[in-house]
Amino acid sequence: MVEQSQPTPGQRVERLRRASGLSRERLAGLADLSATTIKFVETGRRLLTLRVAQRIAPHLNVRDLGELYGPTVTLSLDTRRSHPAVTDVRRALTSWQLSVTGEPATVEYLRGAIDSAWQTWHTSRRQRTEVGLLLPNLLDATQKAARLHEGAERRKSLALLAQSYHLAQAYLAWHGDRELVWVTADRGMAAALDADDPLAMAQASWYAAHLLRATGRSEDALERLREAQALIESRVADGPNEYIEMMADLYLCAALTRARSGDQSAWADWDSARNLVHQALPADYVGLRTRVSRPLVEVYAVMCAVDLGAPDEARRRAYSLDPATIPSTERRGRHYVELARSADLEGAPEAALHLLAKADATSPETVRFSPAARDILTRLAAEAPASIRDDAIRLAERSKMQP
C-alpha cells in the first residue's frame, strides 16, 4: 500500500479557504494581506510564515496553527516580542486620575515636548527605547493639561493630547498589547473630537485607519479616510501647509490599504498624494510628525508594489530613491525591510539578508520588532543557502539581544 504524503501548508490553506467559502481576494482583505501573498502561499511559491498564518487563521476558523502546518506542529497565535517600556506606558494609559490638582503645563511647553518626542522617533536609531522612556511623562502631562485648562487653551491641549496618544500608538504597534493599541486609537479620536479641531480629527482618523487595516477591516479604514478627506478638503487650497500634508498622508494611507487588499486602484490614491506633494508643497518640505515629503511618497510606492506582489515594480520604484534622502531613520529602516520583502518574493535570499543587514545598521529595533523582518530572518537562519546561513544566524541572534 502506498503511503499518502501529507498536504503542504499551502494546500491546507487553500482547502480551508475553499471550505470557508472565501476567495483569495476576500481572505486577503480580511487578513490585511495582498491577494498575491495568499496565491503564492497556496501554490508553494512562498512559505507560510508565522505572520501570515496568524493573520489568516481567525478567518479560516483555525484555533490551532497545527491545522495549517500539519498535525505535529503547535504554535502560539501570540508571539509578538515585547519591549521593556511597555509596562510603564500601560500604567500611564490606565491610571485614571480622578483628582487632578496643581498648575498644568502651558500649551507652548507641551507642543515643544511633543514635537521633540516625534523628532526623537524619527532620528534615533533606537527610537522605541528612547520614546518609550518619554511617553509616560508626556501622557501624564497632556492628560493633566486637558483636564485643567479651560476654553481655547483646553481645546489646544486636547489636540496635543491626541498627538501623545498617536505617538503611543506608533510605539505600541509592533510590541504592545493589542487591546492597549486600541485604547490609544480610541482616546486619540475622542481627544481630537473634544478639541473640535478638523486637522486633529483628520490625524486621528489616519491613525485609526492603520489599526482598522491591521485587524482586517480595510473597508472601514477606507471609509474613515474618506470622511477625513471630506472634513479638511475645503481648507487644503487656502489653509496652511499642514492641511496639504495631511491630505497627502490620507491618500498614502488609502493607497497602502488598497494595495494590501490586492486592489490595483491603490495607484490612483498614490498618484493623488504625489501630485499634492509635488505641486502644492515646497520641494524640500518635510512634515514634522508625519515626515510627508517627496522621498516618503516614493517609499510608499515601493510598499504598495511589494504588497501588490510586484517585486519588479518595487525594484523599479526603488531604483532612483536614495535611502539617505528619507527624512526619518525609522522609515529608512522600514524601507530596507520592504526591499527585503521584495527580494524574498523573488526568491533571492542573499539580497534579502543583505537588505535586512542594512535595516539593522540603520535602525536595530526595526529588525528586532518588525513582524516582516523577523519572519524573513527566522526563515533565512533556518533555510538559507549554506554560503550565507551563518551570517543569517548571527544577525538573528544579534537582533534578539538588542535592547
From TrEMBL:
Q: Please list which residues make up the signal peptide.
A: none
- Which PROSITE patterns did the record assign? HTH_CROC1
Its domain of life reads Bacteria
Checking InterPro entries in the record gives: Cro/C1-type_HTH, Lambda_DNA-bd_dom_sf
Where do the HTH cro/C1-type domain residues begin and end? 13-68
The protein in question is named Helix-turn-helix domain-containing protein
**Taxonomic source organism:** Micromonospora sonneratiae
